[in-house]
Design a protein that fits this description.
Elements: H1 3-11, E1 17-22, H2 31-38, E2 50-54, E3 57-63, E4 84-91, H3 104-109, E5 113-118, E6 121-127, H4 141-149, E7 185-192, H5 206-244, H6 255-259, E8 265-270, E9 273-286, E10 289-298, E11 301-306, H7 308-311, H8 316-319, E12 335-336, E13 339-340
Antiparallel strand pairs: 1-7, 2-3, 2-11, 3-5, 4-7, 5-6, 8-9, 9-10, 10-11, 12-13
């Protein structure tokens, strides 16, 4: 069952436990304090955020999903809920919701965005505008590709279409959606998960499913050892390289020289600003998808970093692949209409 379908099913169940925390009560708190106040997973780490050195100040940008109340299903592949699931979102109060749960669509609309911390305390909260619903027919591959290419339109990370993300550092904050107002609240609705069996039946399609499994199983069995070995290598070598690309570090070599001969690493230069580069490092897997760490380097100084827990949720990996029209394409190595793949 997909995340959207699962949460929609949960949203229809009653009763639910609703908790609301005014955003103004979170301002000035540290990331661990915000997590504790909201009932999120404790102790956020550096690799869960985009971290930027900006004029002597440390800016840390966490995705809103990091502060969803637990137990939460964040949409990461391989992460599954238990008997209860919570959906959280930042939203203004609505008439009639003071004593009840907000609608699923309202919660989902406020579930993506950024918590911005400056010098260790929360400065502002920003909600990403929800994408229009609906898409092309699954059978229309050309329309699906064009729909995917537009998926990352209006990302705030690049100073202009076609530029690499965060070439101007902390100025990207000015391109975020307006900060949540004084009446905004972080609201969570926690309800029992639907019975997994309800979505597990394949009905009359089981012979087709079995035939597909029989075809794919030998392929999986043959390739799995190589895939597992590559993931272990990426976790070991990629993690070590990402550690060298620490925020504020002065590199002894250019990024290209530093990564020469290493697998799972790419360096991108900004054509309009050749002193700036982004280093993309494959770091094993997250759930069942490849992990990716990014570092922005100006001359030889690391000016921003983003760990594997942040690059996907903040769409920084997509921002690597935007062309001059702001659309995803294959103009850079590892990029396609479906984003960046390490």
């Amino acid at each position: 069952m997909s995340l959207a379908a699962l949460l929609a099913a949960v949203a229809l169940q009653t009763p639910g436990v609703v908790t609301s925390t005014p955003v103004v009560e979170l301002l000035g708190l540290t990331p661990p304090e915000v997590a504790a106040r909201l009932g999120a997973a404790p102790d956020p780490t550096a690799d869960e955020a985009l971290r930027i050195m900006d004029g002597g100040h440390l800016v840390e940008i966490h995705p809103i999903q990091r502060f969803w109340r637990e137990p939460a299903m964040h949409g990461d592949l391989g992460v599954r809920p238990g008997e209860t699931i919570c959906l959280s979102g930042v939203l203004p109060p609505a008439p009639g919701e003071a004593d009840g749960a907000p609608t699923f669509s309202r919660l989902a609309a406020g579930s993506r965005g950024q918590f911005v911390f400056v010098d260790g305390v929360l400065r502002s909260v920003h909600v990403t505008a929800r994408r229009p619903e609906g898409g092309p027919s699954p059978r229309d591959l050309r329309a699906a590709r064009e729909h995917s290419r537009r998926r990352a339109l209006n990302l705030p990370w690049a100073a202009a279409p076609g530029r690499l993300p965060l070439g101007d550092g902390g100025a990207a904050i000015m391109r975020l959606e307006p900060a949540a107002g004084p009446d905004a609240v972080m609201t969570s609705v926690c309800r029992p998960t639907p019975d997994a069996a309800e979505g597990s039946s394949v009905g009359d399609d089981w012979p087709l499913a079995l035939a597909g499994a029989m075809v794919l199983l030998p392929v999986y069995a043959a390739t799995q050892p190589f895939t597992a070995a590559e993931n272990r290598r990426a976790e070991r070598e990629g993690g070590a390289l990402a550690a060298q690309l620490a925020l504020g570090a002065e590199l002894t070599q250019s990024p290209e020289e530093m990564v020469h001969g290493r697998r799972g690493v790419r360096v991108f230069r900004d054509r309009a600003d050749p002193a700036f580069a982004v280093v993309a490092v494959k770091t094993g897997v997250r759930g069942s998808s490849a992990g990716l760490a990014l570092a922005g380097v100006r001359d030889r100084r690391v000016v921003w970093t983003a760990g594997p827990a942040a690059t996907g949720r903040l769409a920084l990996s997509d921002a690597l692949c935007l062309n001059d029209e702001g659309l995803l394409d294959d103009g850079r190595p590892g990029c396609s209409a479906y984003g960046y793949r390490p």
